[in-house]
Amino acid sequence: MGIHGSNLTEEQLETHTIAVWRETQECRTDSNGRTYPQHMVHAGPLELATVPIIHSSEDDSFPQLLHLVSLSEILKCIYRHFEHSSHCLPILQLPIDSIPVGTWVSKVGPNASLGDALSLLIQDEPEVSSIPIVDNNDSLLDINSRRDIIALVKDKVYARISLSGFSIHQALLLGRDARFSCRLHNGPRCHMCLRSDSLHKERLANPGVRQLVVIEAGSRRVEGIISIGNVFRILLS
User: Fold this and answer.
1) Which parts form a coiled-coil structure per UniProt (predicted)?
2) pLDDT tens for residues 30-60?
């Protein structure tokens, strides 16, 4: 793709197997040039998006996966549990601007290249999975997410475009095409809230909503992003 990583050609990407990718990912190199193994499944505290519910037999020989619980499902249960007893968890009633929650992220204009957006999305910042697209007044126009990038790759659009010459605006127009609409988007693209809203707003508990764009009332000026991870970090701290 030519950005931060793979030096493979497009033809090699088409034939590159998951097994080979796993081998390269499982072997890392430290600052001294020494290689060391790394488990494919690894995550620190609050880095999980889903939690497996497993039923184990008495001898633990045949564990069965029953369900994958998402953070949004857990958040919905928390909201419902404290719906009529918010005094037990008063932080849910506080306005967003009074608590240390959210992430201040980079923004891009509609004429920024798809390559610039991709560079921001794959940098070492796990909280950033979407980038607000703004006008000259920093007012929210749309949002570009990793899911949008992946969808373009899935449909091999990358083979027909130049990441540095293809703008975010062009990518959004492509996303609105009937051929891609059912794959790229399902429901509203931008989920928003105000600084005066409380954490008890259930928008983040809705399936498929990973983050809220915090905007200024009236002007729609982007002020930040709140992710599900941000909320859980506050609730569990």
Assistant:
1) none
2) 667 776 666 545 445 555 677 788 888 777 6
